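so the lab meeting is tmrw and i was supposed to have these ready like two days ago... anyway. pasting both below. for each one the top line is the aa sequence and the line under it is the structure tokens. i havent really looked at them closely yet so no promises
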Amino acid sequence: MIRRRLPLMLTIIVCGILASFYLIISSPRVYESSAVIQVDTPAAIDQGSDSSLPASRRVQLIEQRLTARSNILDVIDRLHLFADAPGLSETDKIGAVRSSIRIESIQAPGVSADSSMSLAAIVISAQAETPDTAAAIANDFANSVVNRDRENRAARIVEARDFLISEESRLTESLAELDRKMADFNARFEDALPAAQEYLQTELTQLGSSVNALERDIMALQRDRLALEEGPIGADARPSATLVQQIRTAEIELAQARRTLAPGHPEIKRLEDNLTRLNSGDESTSDLTVRQAALIDRQLDQLADQRRELRGRIQEIERGRSRAPQVARDMETMTRQQRRLQDRYAEISRQLAQVETQQLLMDNDQAERFVMLERALPPEYPAFSNRKKSAVMGAVGSFGLAFAVALALEFLRPVLRRTEQFNRATGTRPVISLPYLPTSRDIRNRRISMVYMIVLLAAGLFVAMWLLGNIPGLQSPAIAPTATEGLA
């Protein structure tokens, strides 16, 4: 079968191998270059006090900003990418650059991922069709990471500080307003405050005792008034007894006044003068009786006014105590609000102190920073080079296709060529088997086939060398990568 189908099989094999060569050589080469950025952490700073974002989170934010549409367009303009492809749209260019960039984070061993010390290094890789372009893209993005990390941290610190300062001012005003509101509330409902209930109970007891004492004093003065009114009936018979009674009453009134009034009070002065006049006897009994009655009346009026004031105060305390439950609830609400504001103010003050500490560390170059450890260099060999493997697979596929076609043609035209085949097909063994004698036509066809195969092999070898560019004076039709194709 192979001898009969050899021209066809050789044609399929040569064409398949040449097609594989053309596809392999014409495919563009891809070069990859990488830049390494080290996360430098100063040893003099306690990282537990650094409340900034973890480095991995910062890298994620930087990657999002680097792959933004505007930034990629700036990179394309800055590096003159796609100079030979003016027909490409911006979307295609941005998609090609995004797919060629890879940012990898190297975690520090033995450190939690949420820690600010979790990141050890960053590797930025770029792919392009030329070594110089791949290195230029990787270095451009690495420089952007190093520069933008500090810019982003500084901008974030400024934004956080401005927000915290404004929030602190707002909380200060809210606390001052709440303090004024609570002061007015305490002044308006002083008798209903929970803290004043024990004092009010004591005051209420004292007021009750004072009212009872005033009641007793009023009753005593009323008795003296009645006795004074009865005194003039027997005044002619016993004027000395009446004078003695008046002196006695004046002494009692003076003692009571000294007990209840201040030492320099005018009432005490008047009572002392009255007692002096009675003792000197320079007034008549009737005049003294009238003056004494008027004095008792004034004292009764004063005691009545004091009793009325004390009872008014008692009623005021009772009304305040009746409002105590509602006032207690309102006071508790304002107290909880004040406590929340104070807690929020303390938290804002703590965060502001941390932000100011971060600002101080950045100003003194003591904060965590990104350092370019290794710049990207133009690679010497293309990445993912599988040309030899592809060539072997193309050759194997061509041989397999040739055998498959030859076998299919045999099945389409079955011919009994040997005695064993005839025996299996008919069940009868032939008596005589004569060899086939080729005719002149068969000999001519074999010669033509031999010449065809020799010419085919020579042409295939020539085309293969042409594709590989090994023939002087002939340029390979393969699409060879240049400095202006693709990401170049």
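ok protien two:
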Amino acid sequence: MELTTTLSRDLVLQLSKGLGEPEWLLNQRLAAWETFVKLPYPTTRTEEWKYTDISGVPFESLAPEQPRGRKGPIPEAVQARIAQAELAGYAVFVGSDLVHVELPEAYRAQGVIFTSLHEALKERPDLVKDNLFRTVNWNDLVGPQARRPENSKIPALNAALFTHGVFLYVPKEVEFSKPIGVFKYLEGGYLSGSRTLIVGDENSQAVYIEEYVSPSQVAPSVNTSATEIVLKQGAKVRHAHIQLLGQGFYHFHRQRALLERDAALNDLVVNMGASLSRAEVQSEMLGPGSASEMLGLYFTTGTQHVDHYTLQHHVADHAYSDVLYKGAAKDQSRTVYAGLIKVEQGAQKTDAYQTNRNLLLSEDARADSVPQLEIGANDVKCSHGSSTAPVAPEELFYLMSRGLPRHMAQQILVKGHMADVLTRIPIEPLRQHIESIIEEKVRV
């Protein structure tokens, strides 16, 4: 597919035509493009971006990544993860191309759909049309963000120009506990964009892990991603977003989940890679009895910058949410966390918690933390808190005095700091994988 190399309305038209998309999807892309053109980029004067400067990000100077029709091979780094991860099924993208997808016939026989977003448009166009852009679009903001339309700029770019995606549908009453794994290997040097759409029907259950991988050093690159999760009554999904992109990448991710009555989401965000990354993770408790657990782990080194924004939006009564984000920073790196618990007027008996803890491993590292509450009901239990502290010198000295080299002593302290998040990850291969990444970053 030959595309123009600059961002334009014509590019949107060419991209949609080349992917064989229906008219309704093209119209959505064009609406997103018009929003993108009209809005300014967020700046440090935008409250939600106060600590993150994206003025140097080359959004419009990079060529859009083009689908090339590749069918293989699977990169070695991804092969190693597939062998270690103990998956029920998996898909591998290299750039915009789906090079491999695998799901046991037993799941397909039960009606599970796991494929690329564009294949799903052919297989189940009704499901895709009803749910795509339903949760993450260019006008999905809640709370303070809604008052600043520039927060829609990057999601609008993704909606207009995404080139690939994943669709997972779990039918009513179908359950599987082993993870579905999706690996996106990005070679760098492009503007790339992807979307994920997960639909859990009534009383279904699934585990979904999405990982972003690249070479350790790439030419300047921008990746935008969007994850949409729709959980019907009683559905349960355990979801993980693992970002391990190389230096040179700018990664922007927005995720939003809609939880109906008694639905449950257990979410994990791990940001360990990229030169600069921002993840916005939102859960909407739309039905009584719904529950959202949002976990986050991040570790920055060198001059890395990682920014997280979480939203726990309680619309219905008798719902539960808990956020626990923990991270560490060393060298001259910087971490940012901002979170909001928003409780609507009718959401009585809300039970919501928000915690952010940061560990600084050097004098030049920095962490900014801004937890917030916006409570509209009067019969709720809500709390929030944050802390930022350096490594206690006496703890480091004690471990080193017992013969441990400095990097091993720091490794023990970092893993101890993150232990209460790690112990909440019941998938043993995933937990081991994250622990090995932490160990490697401490040694750098």
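from a quick look at the 2nd one: The chain has one domain: 9-391. The chain has a mean pLDDT of 94. will dig more after coffe
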